Amino acid sequence: MCLIAFAWQMSKHHRLTLIGNRDEFHRRPTRPLDWWDDQEQPQLLAGRDLEAGGTWLGARRDGRFAAVTNIRTPGAAKAPRSRGQLPLDFLQGSQTPAAFMQHLAEQRHEYTGFNLIVGDASELWFLNSEHGQPKALEPGVYGLSNADLDSPWPKTRTLREALAAAPDADSEQLLSLLADSRSYADDQLPATGISLEWERMLAPAFITGNREYGTRASSLLRIGQDGSISMIEKRFAPFGQPEGERLCEWA
């Protein structure tokens, strides 16, 4: 994913509320959100990257969940392993979030720059591959894009503040926060080493983009204090045209 905001243990109803947009090249083949039909993974709920085989956001029926964003480092050499494998490795495994992150910190250079969050019923951990120090997250509301946790990018700050103001809002209200296509003044944009034209295009939460690149999916993941799981994915074609929607639930 490229932009997420998540509320952790901030509601008597929901252990986790996470909203996020996946921005990607439209030519990259993707399977929509679903329960995976692999014999080995009948309890895994996620979309699937059909090019490298991983995912960007997923949950398991027992309450394990994971999400990844890339760190924007133009010109960086491509690492040997896909970042999409990181959420999948956690969701397929049995290590605690803490143990998984401690182990991953030692292997983080095998992946191009990433931010990863992994959690279960009792804990939530974050790792930025550039810093390399796993961090247990306290209850709170956080924002994450292609820099560090709670970096003050306009769209990250705006989405985090909107979620913090309404963590128990209904699904449509939360998904509407991801549809924000507003632009920001040039002096508010981050300087990440790409052209100003691309900084402008990537500035909104929802990237209408062009025929080649843009927001491909908007997602909402909720895990109840009772262990129930609900995930919604809205999919988009070039220029932000709606392409479908899927709701999956586990009570």
Quick description:
Helices cover 18% and strands 35% of the residues. It has helices at 85-92, 97-107, 154-165, 171-177, 196-202, and strands at 3-8, 14-25, 30-35, 44-49, 57-60, 65-70, 114-119, 124-128, 135-136, 140-144, 213-224, 229-237, 241-250.
- The CATH homologous superfamily is called Penicillin V Acylase, Chain A
Strand order of the largest sheet: 3-4-5-6-7-8-9
The name CATH uses for the topology is Penicillin V Acylase, Chain A
Q: Provide a count of the helices.
A: 5
Shape: globular
If you had to describe this structure to a student in words, what would you say it looks like?
The model has no long low-confidence stretch (mean pLDDT 95). 18% of the residues lie in helices and 35% in strands. With 251 residues, the chain is an alpha+beta fold. It contains five helices and 13 strands. Strands 3-4-5-6-7-8-9 form a seven-stranded antiparallel sheet, covered by helices on one side. The protein has one domain: Penicillin V Acylase, Chain A. The chain starts with a strand and ends with a strand. β3 and β4 form a beta hairpin.
